[in-house]
Amino acid sequence: MDRPWFDEAFDQHGALRPPYDTLRRRAGWDPLLPTAALAQLLHELPLGDDTRIFPVPVVIDDAEYRAVVQAGLVQRARALQQLFTDLALGPQKILTAGIGLDRAVLDEILAAEGTSLDGLRKLWRGRGREEVRFVYGPDLVRDPEGRWTVLEDNVGCVAGSADSFFVADRYRSATQLPGCSTCQGPPDLAIAIMRWLHRLGSDLDDSVAAVLGCDAAGESPWALRLHENARRRMILDTLGIPVIERGQLRGRQSAAGGRSGALVNFYVDQSWSDVFGIPGIKMLNAPGTGVLGNKAFLPYIDDAIRLYACEDPILPTPPTRLLTEGVLPADKENWVIKSAVGCQGTEVFVLRWQPQDRLRLLEDRVSKEWCGAAAVAQRYVEPSHLAPAGPNSWNDYRVEIRPVTYVLDWRDVYVSEQAVGKTVSTYDARRLNNISQGACYVPVLREPCSHCGTER
Description:
Layout: H1 18-27, H2 36-43, E1 58-61, H3 62-88, H4 103-112, H5 117-123, E2 134-136, E3 139-142, E4 148-152, H6 163-175, H7 188-200, E5 207-211, H8 228-239, H9 249-255, E6 261-265, H10 273-276, E7 281-283, H11 298-309, E8 320-323, E9 335-339, E10 348-350, H12 356-368, E11 372-379, E12 385-386, E13 397-402, E14 405-407, E15 413-415, E16 420-425, E17 440-447
Parallel strand pairs: 1-17, 5-6, 6-7
Antiparallel strand pairs: 2-14, 3-4, 8-11, 9-10, 9-11, 12-13, 13-16, 14-15, 16-17
Helix pairs in contact: 3-11
């Protein structure tokens, strides 16, 4: 059976892969064959907004998740942290490392983010590397050989930071699936926040507050409405952390007598420099770190890992390059074009799926607007597929996962235990696993679960 993609549930012989077989035996029913009632329950407002949950889980080998996904994301997150520290506080050695990221390219990237290297260094003057903290949400897919790869790095207001828990919890409660303390434990977001506050320790008084981010939703009145902020607030309520508006911070600090405090902020941009300047404030997402999500950095991250960690990347990036010449790649059918500052699935174009008139428009845009560091070309990777009815069934789905990762300190990186997945039908014209564009969340489970007493 020769397929140009990795099948999540079935091997090349059509046999059920061990993680799915283990889950089926442990559950006593086939998770690939949900009932109509379960599918309806997870499709119709399962989280109270327009979010939908796919009724079939992605099941990953637990050992693989820990040794590859979690270890690879710790490695990559630390490299991003070191990259930012090198630029904002250090000697900028990456600019002379011979990897192609020079000062001219960096200036373009930072300008697109509304700042400059001088502005970034001024913002961080007098600060220390331990303050380089951020929430990181990479988009991961398996390539046709089954190897995990990172398509994008998202930093700051990361969708899924709360939803990862609620999707898994809703699926487990709907199916009555046996779980374990790790699988059904507190939300990763709550664990990360409490871990961060504990690490602040004696440097922190009692003043802790949160500022919410923005909900993912399109501008059209018919766009999906995704209310993850409401779910973030539910988690914060369980921790006793009040939600405030950003404008209340200075008054809150004055009322607290200027004591130190922690701010659980779910987004950050250059306008946060005034908050960063409040004495004693520690921030979960530090100002300036959002530039790390600019896609023009993608061609250099694998080399940054080699430079800072002296290791090869565990989770590599597909071949990615800047469109410096202002032209599309010659073998354009094998590439994806992405705006360096696009978000929520906007301005991403898989060239093999574009009609000729759209290709001509893209060629014109690349030559006039997207040359230099304004956009990247990334080698197309066909994501893994999930075909619940079997490897030869007519309907299957592309799969992507996002294990939200929290950079809490200089060497403390926490990777979610409750990763969330996204899936979209291979017949969907958009072909993008983006929730705001209509894709479904999919629960991500791990088997054999070492915490459930199941033998490996």
